[in-house]
Amino acid sequence: MSVDRKKQFVEVAYNILKEEGPEGVKIRRVAREMECTSTVIYRYFDNLDHLIALASVRFFKQYLFEFKSMVNDPQILTDPYGLNLKMWDCLAGYAFRDIPIYENLFFGKYQHSLGEIIFEYYQLLPDDFKQDFDGYSASILFNNDLFQRDFVLLRKAVAVGTLTTRDAEVLSQIECHIFHGVLLKYKDEYKNAGVPEKAAAEFHMLLYDLAKKYR
What we know:
The chain is an all-alpha fold.
């Protein structure tokens, strides 16, 4: 199989996602634009959801640059829970602009294979990231579950005595559920003017109100 060909399929799917969201990506449509049969596409991807998830990673690009910077912020040694909140704010700033993409990526069919999908994209298009990840950031980035990724970060807070292990476990669940809930709340209107900012502000308020209970 041609790597360049697989890249082209991802590019076509990404362009459709950008304009229409996951609902617009259909195997026959991608095949038509690539002037091939649907069978050819299935040689490169397990199914349509696999193609959509892989193409969705490109929306993650700018966040990943900021993510790596924050993971290496000295604040992680003194106030890891505070840094965790900042990282959620950063993610929200991107996610609420493209809610269907992020909701599908984090909570769709491949939600428990997220790290594998990101790693597959990283191998396919390494120049899109233009950076290497140290061991700690890679352990978070390539983790296969959003809940576990959050828990990896919160364990730093356990290590410095800010949280108990049980608090970290509960918080990782609650934070992810709040994120998902706000994504779903604004999913049908995120393209309206001001809605991404409104959603991000609501998420921020809920997250920081929660933090007051644990800090």
